[in-house]
Design brief:
Radius of gyration of chain B: 14 Å
Number of helices of chain A: 22
Largest sheet of chain A: 9 strands, parallel
Shape of chain B: globular
CATH architecture of chain B: 3-Layer(aba) Sandwich
Radius of gyration of chain A: 24 Å
Number of strands of chain A: 9
Strand order of the largest sheet of chain B: 2-1-3-4-5
Number of domains of chain A: 2
CATH class of the largest domain in chain A: Alpha Beta
Distance between the termini of chain A: 54 Å
CATH architecture of the largest domain in chain A: Alpha-Beta Barrel
Structural class of chain A: alpha/beta
Strand content of chain B: 15-25%
Oligomer: heterodimer
Number of strands of chain B: 5
Largest sheet of chain B: 5 strands, parallel
């Protein structure tokens, strides 16, 4: 006790309220955590061993002793031919899975020759506008031997159709395909804003696709419910957790309402989180995510299959934390964030490259990012035991607190009538906007220090970046014109008419989308056909 | 041009297909808090829509937020259209992920200032105010 008395003044000094003793999300942190902070914690009820309900400690018994996480680097730029070469490079250098970044015209369902595609073709991802482009993208890559994640949302059904048909042409059946389409339209309305149709028809496409995947692609993750973009848009850690899992609840509810059995589709739902800079808050967030999801699935939806209870997730380090100033510092930021993702028990990980606040990454920068994961996996020793931070007074208290915040958001959104209704009234959008503005103010007041930006500033030297010119646009527009003049246009018109017919009714839109894709209808043509039926969503411009 | 008795009017616009509006909204709010009249176009505006909104709202400055790499063709088109409408006095500011090598070309075609990641809203406010305090001089940006 003498020691404690002697220490008291020091501790008292430390706990004086200070804006700097908060997490990056503004959560106050105490100077010291003690057993009484987690006195109510019940090991088997609240934590469980790894692999046991509620999976707070991880979804697998042995975690990374059994199998390392999948090192999955997101890539895509320019033409399908250029990205095909980058994919082969990544696979040759120890990458495990592919992850496709599409350009904005693809993400928004516009062909490269549309007026709004001006300057955007091949810029922030690869340009894919038809089955032909997808055939080039995966040329020489056997689709039964890789898993492919596709970051595509509004037109996810069309890109999935292209992928299934490319595999078919390789002689690979849909039951052999493993991978993910992001297909999380709710976070587009909330955060990233790459929506096409209004929320309700958008949700119908997702439900139709989940049903198709459940019936035909047993190894495919039908959706990747994403907090990543919510966080990048400026949310706090708790908002990221709450809105993502509440989106998950919304998808499950819509599928159940459409007559599907929860245990048939829920095992293929996956999640995608951001790993930001506040180390312990992120680890707590990942642990809380698993516990909340397990309880929601068991208690709210009555799921009986343990695989329905498991929150499996991909993690990406925080792009928004990267600085254009002193870019090499970003290697350190990314390493810490990646370590938080690993200590949080992620199933797969993307590490950002050091030059991504400047441009798309160079091959050298991507290699360092992949090596960062390999150093953590092979040198740091953190893979040797599961959930090494369990039982830390601080980490368990933080896990409880962030869970409580998320459950409070659930209550508010439930009271609004669910997430689609909350989105329609702009609730999550406004919450995130406010958090983003407050963080910016905190940085400008230097309450939050960003090394090299508002402290430790130096003169910057020129930094070599990957520069993407307008050549991809010319090439893609040329390819598209050739395609339009060489395909069977009568078949295309019939297929697009068929798609509109199903869209007006209640059938599954996947079948007519597959037929249109086979006929080499373009992505823009398919989306335009649906725009005619469902209209386009316009967000009220609030700030 | 902005008279001394009149608040600066600024149009914040998100051209192109990109939906990442965190920066645009933060800047819009900071400029409003600094006493300017701010109009935000919302997402996915074509250069034609932006210039037509700028004319209709009689703004002194247009702030474009572009993170997707489409800045050169879009800025060229917006500035061309402003000239066609005789609105050369409307200053164009740009924020986003812009490669350093493109900045000389952007300045040459008439972009008054380019704000890169890490810029503070205070810098944005000062440079926009500075551009108009110089009464028709150059951008007012420090070298």
């Amino acid at each position: 006790m003498g020691l404690k008395e002697k220490d008291t003044p020091v501790v008292a000094e430390m706990v004086r309220p200070s804006p700097t003793h908060t997490t990056i999300s503004g959560r106050p942190i105490e100077a010291l955590y003690r057993p009484e902070d987690v006195a109510d914690l019940d090991y088997s009820r609240d934590l469980g061993d790894p692999g046991d309900f509620p999976y707070t400690r991880g979804i697998h018994r042995t975690m990374y002793r059994g199998k390392a996480w999948t090192m999955r680097q997101f890539a895509g730029f320019g033409t399908p031919r250029e990205t095909n070469a980058r994919f082969k490079y990544l696979l040759e250098h120890g990458g495990h899975g592919l992850s496709v970044a599409f350009d904005l015209p693809t993400l928004m369902g516009r062909d490269p020759d549309h007026a709004l595609s001006l300057g955007e073709v091949g810029k922030c991802g690869v340009a894919i506008s038809s089955l032909q482009d997808m055939e080039t993208l995966f040329a020489g890559i056997p689709l039964d031997q890789v898993s492919t994640s596709m970051t595509i949302n509004s037109p996810a059904a069309m890109l999935l159709a292209f992928y299934v048909i490319v595999a078919e042409k390789q002689g690979v059946g849909p039951d052999k395909l493993s991978g993910t389409v992001q297909a999380d339209i709710l976070k587009e309305f909330i955060a990233q804003k790459e929506y096409i149709f209004p929320p309700r028809p958008s949700m119908r496409v997702i439900v139709d696709m989940i049903r198709y995947c459940t019936e035909r692609l047993p190894k495919w993750n039908s959706i990747s419910i994403s907090g990543y973009h919510i966080r990048e848009a400026g949310s706090t850690a708790a908002q990221e957790l709450a809105f993502t899992l509440r989106d998950g609840i919304e998808y499950v509810q819509w599928c159940v309402d459409a007559g599907m059995d929860v245990d048939e589709f829920a095992p293929r739902l996956s999640f995608f989180f951001n790993s930001h800079s506040d180390f312990f808050e992120e680890i707590a967030k990942f642990r809380a995510a698993r516990r909340i999801w397990a309880r929601v699935m068991k208690e709210r939806f009555g799921a009986k299959n343990p695989r329905s209870w498991m929150c499996r997730f991909h993690t990406q380090t925080a792009g928004v934390s990267l600085t254009a100033q002193q870019p090499y510092n970003n290697v350190v930021r990314t390493a810490l964030q990646a370590l938080a993702g690993v200590l949080g028990g992620t199933q797969s990980l993307h590490t950002n490259s050091l030059d991504e606040a400047l441009a798309l990454p160079t091959e050298e920068a991507v290699t360092i990012a992949l090596r960062t994961q390999q150093v953590i996996a092979h040198e740091s020793g953190v893979v040797n035991t599961a959930d090494p931070l369990a039982g830390s007074y601080f980490v368990e208290k933080l896990t409880n607190d962030i869970e409580a915040d998320a459950l409070e958001y659930f209550r508010r959104i439930d009271a609004m009538g669910g997430m689609v209704a909350a989105i329609e009234r702009g609730y999550p959008q406004r919450e995130i906007q406010e958090a983003a503005f407050q963080f910016q103010k905190a940085v400008e007041r230097k309450e939050k220090i960003i090394v090299g930006v508002n402290e430790y500033v130096m003169d910057e030297k020129p930094f070599p970046i990957l520069y993407i010119d307008e050549q991809a646009a010319e090439e893609q527009i040329g390819r598209l014109q050739t395609l339009r003049s060489s395909r069977d246009n009568a078949r295309v018109r019939a297929a697009l008419g068929g798609l509109q017919g199903v869209a007006r009714g209640t059938g599954n839109v996947m079948e007519p989308i597959l037929e249109a894709a086979r006929a080499y209808a373009t992505l823009g043509e398919m989306c335009d056909a649906l725009r005619e039926v469902w209209g386009e969503y316009v967000e009220p411009p609030i700030f | 041009m902005a008279g001394s008795d009149r608040k600066l009017r600024v149009l914040i616009a998100k051209p192109g297909l990109d939906g990442h509006d965190r920066g645009a909204k933060i800047v819009a709010r900071a400029l409003r808090d600094a006493g300017m009249e701010v109009i935000y176009t919302g997402l996915r505006q074509s250069p034609e829509q932006i210039v037509s909104a700028a004319a209709q709202e009689d703004v002194d400055a247009v702030g474009l937020s572009i993170l997707s790499g489409a800045h050169l063709p879009i800025c060229r088109r917006v500035i061309e259209l402003l000239k066609e409408k005789g609105m050369e006095g409307t200053r164009v500011f740009l924020g986003g992920i812009i490669p350093a090598q493109d900045i000389p070309e952007l300045k040459r075609i008439g972009v008054a200032e380019v704000f890169l990641p890490g810029s503070s809203t205070q810098d944005v406010i000062k440079l926009i105010q500075g551009a108009f305090n110089e009464q028709g001089g150059a951008s007012g940006a420090p070298p």
